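Reference record
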Amino acid sequence: MADEPEVKTDEPKKVNGVEVASTDLVIPLRKKVIAHGEEVQELKFREPTAGDIEVCGTPVMIDFLTGEQPKMTFETKAMFAMMSRLAGVPPSTIKQLHPKDWGYAALALAHRFFIPEM
């Protein structure tokens, strides 16, 4: 989509003073948000672990039995909690996101970390 921000994943750099690992997902934001008292223009999400899923719940449900194409839905509360945990920011930061930034981050996280390879 033309107005979607580019997901940055290839070059090592620092976001908010923290080095980004090659498995991290950096999402540029349309609108700055406050994280830990500072304005940020992008969020860095680390790769989740099974422990994150235990704490937050499964943020993406995929129904392979309905129709020809699998149907993906977000468990909204679990996705909010997972975003906060993986980005290392308070839930209030995630609540400040522009709806398009939230949706784009949710889709990027689902695609990168939660949808199984077929």
Observations:
- The chain has a mean pLDDT of 85.
- The CA atoms of residues 25 and 112 lie 8 Å apart.
- The two ends are 24 Å apart (CA to CA).
